[in-house]
């Protein structure tokens, strides 16, 4: 694996101190090659593996607690971080070749002609009903009222509402059949 330069640091002005550089170099020497092989094995992408290894090493370097651990624990932590980075990269929009666009494309919308004709047919069929039947059918299906609400609004017993709704729907079905809408 080619040696990469890690320019981020924790010293004043964003520069790495000599001690930080030595720590980072030791971290790189101890873990970069096995980590790189692991990432190449996961992805099959040698160039992309360099980026993931660099990010993993930087995260380890920025986490002093992990550097104080046993070297095998540190390596296991870095392998886990690298695996998560590979997964994140695979899920990213860039990987799926999604691109941002300035404007969202127009959605194709139907012209609404069929819906208009259906509405006209239903309106004509409703007009063929008696006023009592039409009143309960419209309240039930267009306004969404319950039997009790319709009974209160029309000032009739709930049983009468149910009866009118039953016979009103039956008459509506017949009117639509006459127009050739249903069987």
Automatic annotation (TrEMBL):
One of its GO terms (molecular function) is sigma factor activity. Pfam families: Sigma70_r2, Sigma70_r4. The keyword Magnesium does not apply. One of its GO terms (biological process) is DNA-templated transcription initiation. Residues 27-95, 125-173 form the RNA polymerase sigma-70 region domain. Gene3D superfamilies: 1.10.1740.10, Winged helix-like DNA-binding domain superfamily/Winged helix DNA-binding domain. InterPro entries: RNA_pol_sigma-70-like, RNA_pol_sigma-70_dom, RNA_pol_sigma70_r2, RNA_pol_sigma70_r4, RNA_pol_sigma_r2, RNA_pol_sigma_r3/r4-like, WH-like_DNA-bd_sf. Keywords: DNA-binding, Sigma factor, Transcription, Transcription regulation. It comes from the Bacteria. PANTHER family: ECF RNA POLYMERASE SIGMA FACTOR SIGL (PTHR43133:SF52), RNA POLYMERASE ECF-TYPE SIGMA FACTO (PTHR43133). Belongs to the sigma-70 factor family. ECF subfamily. This is RNA polymerase sigma-70 factor (ECF subfamily).
